[in-house]
Amino acid sequence: MLDYDEEAGRYDASRGGEPRAAAAAQAVLDLIPPGARDLLDIACGTGIVTRRFPAVRAGLRVAGVDLAPSMTRIAATRLPGTVVRADSRHLPFGDARFDAAVSVWLLHLQSAPEDVRALVGECARVLRPGGVYVTTVDKAASHNVGSDIDAVLSARPRGPVRDSAADVAACAAEHGLVPAGRTVFRGHGQGRSPRRTIADLRRGWFVTLPPGSPLADAFAARLAALPDQDRPRPDPVFRLRAFRKPPTSLAGGGNPTGTGDD
Q: How far apart are CA 128 and CA 26, in angstroms?
């Protein structure tokens, strides 16, 4: 697992920078009703995406939460007075505080299903009736673009998937949220090259391949044998799902019999 506190200084540059941030922010906003006024960005990281929300949509107020101190400090320079350090499973906000809650590239990092349930539950709690929760799903699968790098990595041990679309939808339903749309966006600048993938492997990007282990070294050797070591393969395409809190909350949660866009 990457140390996101240590990653903070290079996070933006290593993950597509402003072009990716712009694509992510626009895709999220496409799923949020025009009348939304207060948005919470959970695991806001460096704030590179968060700051675009009010820039793109006038009148939108944002708050950001992240657990890594270094990430929080960088985000606070971009969004003074609106970023707090907190655990996403225990949000420091009252009930029905926001019109939108967003968690981009977060659910896949959770250690156990109960952490995902707690996180989604907190998002549902802080939403006002009629509010929308937007999250990425199937993060790992988004990086599989059918390249020669993917062919090499296909043989690696697989860890548990915490953010499958079906599981996230079921979890949202447990907390009374109903499907409200979906979209995708391109991870500009995140197309892997063999050399970059080896570097990611050696700094702990792949959880089931601990840096320095014989298995990790074997995969690094196979990646090093690929042609065009510095040529990026196609960019990943990330998937977003949206879920709405019904205007009148259902006692005890659960999924109503209404229809959704999903």
A: 22
Domain ranges of the chain: 4-143+159-191+234-244
What is the number of alpha carbons within 13 Å of residue 49 lying toward its C-beta? 27
- Give how far Cα 226 sits from Cα of 106, 109, 121, 233, 246, Å: 31, 29, 44, 12, 51
Write out the chain's pLDDT in tens, 262 residues: 555 556 555 555 556 568 889 999 999 999 999 999 999 999 998 899 999 999 999 999 999 999 999 889 999 999 999 999 999 999 999 999 999 999 999 999 899 999 999 999 999 999 999 999 999 999 999 999 999 999 999 999 988 999 999 999 999 999 999 999 999 999 998 999 999 999 999 988 888 999 999 999 999 999 999 999 999 999 999 999 999 999 974 434 443 323 333 3
Could you tell me the pTM of the whole model? 0.88
| Terminal alpha carbon distance of the chain | 32
Residue type, 55: A
Residue type, 87: D
Question: CATH code for 4-143+159-191+234-244?
Answer: 3.40.50.150
